[in-house]
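ARCHIVE CARD
Drawer: 12
Card no.: 0347
Subject: one protein chain, sequence and derived structure
Cross-reference: see card 0346
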Amino acid sequence: GVTPMHMPFEGTITLTPDTYQRVVTETCASTAQHGAKRLLILNWHEGNIPSLAIASEKLHREVGMSVIVVQACYVAAELYGHDCGGLTHGGEIEALAVLAYHPELVHLDRIEYSSDHSHGRKWDRLRRTRSYQPVLRDIKTIAATGWYGAPEHATAAKGLKMLNDIADAIAKECGEIFALLDEAQGGTAEIKHLKIAG
């Protein structure tokens, strides 16, 4: 995705916002050509949020899809943040998400050098507000080592439970939101009709 914040760390690959928007828009528009009318985009990476907002707007306005973008990392924080030390870069919530299906990628025995938690929380709190959104040079502004948190209590079983709980919450909420969208907008048929009439 769009991750210029992580480029100071070797091996990081990032897309430009324009490239990412085009990949999302063109991929999802293809599904519309095959009959998809509703689109649920699940995102876990905060760096993708602005690009997804633009891509989803385009998919709604130009392709005629009913679109919901879900920030799954924030759903995870709402459900598990109080038990897992909040949503931190490399903390327990993120470890759980990977442990659930790819435990071979997580090496809890190698955990060391977590950046200062209070410093990281301060910056995360600031950059996640709706009113003020500073643009940071890179992830080291938040965490000098690139991560902070306490993932040592993460297990694959807890990760699977977390992901199932997140999926259930998203399915329930999005089902209700799509019903509201259909009611308010007349479904995607109305959007296409307005596009033709306009």
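Annotation on reverse: The domain at 4-184 is CATH 3.40.50.10310 (Rossmann fold). Residues 41 and 69 are 5 Å apart (CA to CA).
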